[in-house]
Amino acid sequence: MALGLQLRRQVLAGLLLCVCVGRWAEAGKVLVVPMDGSPWLSMREVVRELHARGHQAVVVAPEVNMHIKAEDFFTTKTYTVSYIGEKLDSFVKTHVNLVFEKVHWVTLFLKTMASLKKGSLFFERSCEGLLYNKDLIRHLNASSFDVVLTDPVHPCGAVLAKYLSIPAVFFLRQFPCDLDVEGTACPNPFSYVPRLLTMNPDRMTFFQRVKNMLYAPGLKYICQVVYTPYARMASELLQREVSLGEILASGSVWLFRGDPVMDYPRPIMPNMVFIGGINCANRKPLSQVCTAAFVQSVLPGEHNL
Ligand SMILES: *[C@@H]1O[C@H](CO)[C@@H](O)[C@H](O)[C@H]1NC(C)=O
Residue 45's domain spans which residues? Predict the structure, then answer.
């Protein structure tokens, strides 16, 4: 009887220890390298939830940025960059206005490419500010993070994860040019998966499949313009020739802010997870004007009732 009681007490103590240490052991240190702009607004919700579950998050961001503001559920580490705030502001305004321009599509394409080049220069400068900041890199390296959470569309965080040899979790909407396919080694046949900007449906005719193939080099060109500097920086830091595909291939988990409701079905790999709903985490009620305009657009004539 006494032995039984003692045993039970030991088991209880053991369980208690497991529960306490278990909670400790679970808490991780997350290095967050966000992409500025709207992608951060969704990622911020993930960081909020990580904090609520007892994890510790450090967000690195350029001093001059659009949306990455300090919050009480993460620590911020900023770094200096070689551009100034007004320049970034005026670029964003001009770039957004492009969407509303009524010009020939060739002009629009050329203007968009020029704007993209200019915009990617901001991201490139920002990445240089982070990767070549010796003090910050030393500090981050010494902080022994368990994981890097980053949007690989701005591949600076992916390069940083590789440089510091920390496992990476990618959080993204999509790449314009199948770099995610390269990174996940996922099949992506032209005959089956509609490419970006082609407006092709999921059941394509022969000619739509051909169009699908013809768009690929154009999309690749966009990526070359935007992403070459990151492969260069990675090669410089790792002191060997590295492609962006190789950097992305080291991602452990890919969280896609997409959804079968928004995107066409396609082959996926076991480390690809679809979390499209997170884009709605920051919803606000629509204004009256918005609602009226929407009703009018989907139900013509309805407003006369
Ligand atoms: C990080 O620290 C380790 C151990 O001190 C060192 O071997 C490694 O070179 C450091 N990495 C960087 C990128 O500084």
Answer: 27-188+230-298
Tell me if 169 is assigned to some domain: yes
Label residues 91-121 b or e (16+ Cβ within 10 Å = b).
beeeeeeeeeeeeeeeeeeeebeebbeebbe
* 122 CA from centroid of ligand 1 (Å): 28
**Structure confidence by residue, pLDDT tens digits, 120-130:** 888 999 999 99
Q: Is the CB–ligand 1 distance for residue 141 below 6 Å?
A: yes
Q: Copy the structure tokens of residue 1.
A: 């009887």
For ligand 1, atom 13, the nearest C-alpha belongs to 164
How many whole angstroms from 210 Cα to the centroid of ligand 1? 48
Residue % of the chain over a pLDDT of 90: 52
Evaluate whether residue 225 is within a structural domain.
Answer: no
Tell me, in angstroms, the distance from the centre of ligand 1 to residue 85's CA.
33
Number of domains in the chain: 1
Q: Record the pTM.
A: 0.82
Q: Within a domain: residue 223? A: no
